[in-house]
């Protein structure tokens, strides 16, 4: 029995997500581009990050597989109560499956990239030491900290 296997396709990724990946990877937001430039090439603590990484029906903004670390970059749409609820479910889903989720706002990247990188470095250090991550306050009121769950695929800007 033969199957039509796409070698670019990540196992478990929905066809819809797989079709949208090239567009997502090319059309980064300015804030995604800034953060990606700070993460790519193992610039942060020697950790390999991927951008627009698919898992199931979701596309993660940035992902470090070695640490199961998900970084979600949130634009203003994430201030909407319905979107916050979706984000919480999405984060809870990933946390329940052993991922560490860190949410960063676009404004944090724009206003203080070094603080964002410091926060991410501290999370990586905690994971390396085996310290369990728990949700914590973000500099942006009402936003989650280190752990969180899923809704729909895509970037949600």
Tell me what you see in this structure:
It is a single chain. The protein is an alpha+beta fold and 157 residues long. It has one domain: Endonuclease, Chain A (3-Layer(aba) Sandwich), CATH 3.40.960.10. Helices cover 39% and strands 16% of the residues. It contains 5 helices and 4 strands; from the N terminus they run H-H-E-E-E-H-E-H-H. It has a 4-stranded mixed beta sheet, sandwiched between helices. A hairpin with a 2-residue loop joins strand 1 and strand 2. The protein is globular.
Features:
single chain, 157 residues, alpha+beta, Endonuclease, Chain A, 5 helices, 39% helix, globular, disordered N terminus, disordered C terminus
Topology summary:
Elements: H1 15-26, H2 30-39, E1 50-55, E2 58-64, E3 69-74, H3 81-96, E4 100-105, H4 106-111, H5 113-129
Parallel strand pairs: 3-4
Antiparallel strand pairs: 1-2, 2-3
């Amino acid at each position: 029995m033969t199957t039509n296997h796409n070698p670019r396709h990540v196992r478990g990724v929905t066809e819809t997500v797989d079709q949208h990946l090239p567009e997502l990877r090319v059309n980064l937001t300015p804030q995604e581009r800034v953060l990606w430039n700070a993460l790519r090439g193992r610039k942060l603590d020697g950790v390999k990050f991927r951008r627009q990484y698919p898992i199931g029906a979701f596309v993660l903004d940035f992902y470090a597989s070695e640490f199961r670390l998900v970084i979600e970059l949130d634009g203003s749409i994430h201030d909407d109560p319905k979107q916050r609820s979706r984000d919480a479910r999405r984060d809870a889903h990933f946390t329940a499956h052993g991922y560490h989720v860190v949410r960063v706002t676009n404004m944090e990247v724009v206003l203080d990239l070094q603080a964002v990188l410091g926060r991410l470095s501290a999370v990586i250090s905690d994971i390396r030491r085996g310290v369990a991550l728990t949700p914590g306050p973000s500099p942006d009121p009402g936003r989650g900290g280190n752990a969180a769950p899923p809704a729909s695929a895509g970037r949600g800007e």
